[in-house]
Amino acid sequence: MNNLNYGIIGNCKTGALVSETGSIEWLCLPNFDSPSVFAKILDENIGGSFEIIAENLINTEQEYLKNTNILRTRFNCNEGTFDVLDFMPRYVSENVKERYSPPDLVRYFKVVSGQPKFKITYNPKLEYGKHKTVTRAENDYIKSYTSKGEYDSMYFYSSFDLKKIIKGESITLSNDSFCLISYHQKLLKQTTERAYLKLQRTEVYWLNWSQRTTQYTKYNDQVIRSALALKLLSYQKSGAVLAALTTSLPETIGEVRNWDYRFCWIRDASMVVKIMKKLGHNSISRRYLNFIIDIMPDKDEKIQIMYGINGEKKLTEHELDHFSGYQGSKPVRIGNAAYKQKQNDIYGILLDVIFEHFRIHRTSLMHSEELWTIVRNVVKIVKRNWQKPDKGIWEMRSEDKHFTFSKVLCWTAIDRALRIAIMLNQEHYIKPWIKLRKQISDDIMQKAWSEKKQAFTQAYETEELDSAVLLMESYGFIAGTDPKYISTVEAIQRELEYKGLMYRYKNNDDFGKPKSAFTICSFWLINALIKIGRKEEAEKKFNELLSYSNHLGLFSEDIDFETKRLLGNFPQAYSHLALIETVINLTQGEKTDEELMLEFFH
């Protein structure tokens, strides 16, 4: 069974996927959304990769250095053992407060024992491999560049003999060595000592970052790994948060549900930011709110459901016909036509994050005024739109419906706006907003409830069920003890759970019936079971779900019901934020050893 057994490395500028055998099979330079330079994951033959072929290999082992985003692949060979430490430099540089995050990837080779031998296959394919890439050795580096089409280039530095690398000849590892890929030509001489210093500084950066993460009594390692993965999906320059690192990894092998996820969805990003705040990482939240302020300059401008990582508003979708796709799953898409869709749930999710920000932080007057303008604009939009159908959370490309989840999140938008108005002493808005909130709530209670199903359904006037409806409680629309919520959870579990995993919904969409489990929905069910008092069952399901992650504890978007292999874009921000939220709910009220110790000494 082929699984997504990759590790992610990155530095909040771009990221790469490294296979369990130490092959770099996905990398875009210089940024997350740039064209790929390695894309073997999308085409075995013409995608391009950077592989280490060890001679007389016995096996490979792979793990992250504890509490970091530095990935170690150990090669055990007959002649000896060596480690490759893969990372992208990220640390605070001297005399500058800025993070040093260049578009570089370092592979540090460390001798463990003996004198192992290997060959390097260095095969970049720039600009998504559309045209031939020329790779040749210069004096102290290898340069790769496009032969036609848009010009692009990249540089390769190493302590190994560059001609041996170009020719794919055998290399004996006697001392620690390095390879460095950079989008830019380096001004300083690249040495093993310099690479080692970058490794040390990057390790210190990640250890400090992890140490600032809230600790939990149980599942702490899983929380830290998920938080580290989410941090890698945040774009330092603008504050945007990506849905995933990849494009076009299929939800079902051989089918066409293949999308580009290297964008910032307001919904996914806002949920990530809320969770990261709970983990004590407030700078992600601050930068994200600045991103939101920057993309909403005009008061009457429509809020899109998603934006490019630099705030781009037009994300035209194209197909890369020359790529065969992940295990033959075509088409490979770049861009995402969903940016044109109307999804009314984004307003509630956005205002929920802004409310949390006001609740926890004293913000500057200017910042508060900008955010308050956004709040009032969102209320206007919701007032105009809440009674209209939309595409819903699952981005149905065909018909619009009155989705229950969208209505609940419209209610959430008004509820959070109201709380912010109270906090800011804006009394003039309170009465009309209370009235609007009640109007939406009454509408949902009347039209979304099915007597036949004894549940809130996917949309008004339908009997179909939907996993997203499980979130009604977590947004405060209904109590976990409410009989209507309890019977909704039970009905959704009965109809949408299959072999321990959850469908999003079972009704036909634009591409027929969904065939894989949507990872976040399985976490949502576990959270809902906790809320209705079935904690023991929830924890059992949680442990089972954790066992379906890849060898490094990472999750993609989907899981195959039968084989439990990971499918869809990877790693998926949605899946990891839901994992963290589940741990928070499972351990609520339980104190860590550190907290107990502090209490004891007080």
Name a few traits of the molecule.
14 helices; Glycosyltransferase; 19% strand; 602 residues; Beta-galactosidase, Chain A, domain 5; 4-stranded antiparallel β-sheet; 2 domains; 8-stranded antiparallel β-sheet; alpha+beta
Q: How many β strands by DSSP?
A: 28
Q: What is the CATH architecture assignment of the largest domain?
A: Alpha/alpha barrel
Helix count, per DSSP?
Answer: 14
Instruction: Measure the end-to-end span.
Output: 54 Å
Mean pLDDT: 94
Rounded Rg: 25 Å
Examine the coordinates and then state which fold CATH places here, giving the name of the CATH topology of the largest domain: Glycosyltransferase
> Can you identify the CATH class of the largest domain?
Mainly Alpha
Major β-sheet profile: 8 strands, antiparallel
Query: Helicity, in percent?
Result: 25-40%
Strand content: 15-25%
Question: Going across the major beta sheet, what is the strand order?
Answer: 6-7-8-11-17-15-14-13
Number of domains: 2
Q: Uncertain segments of ≥5 residues (pLDDT<50)?
A: none
> Which structural category fits the helices and strands?
alpha+beta
Form type: globular
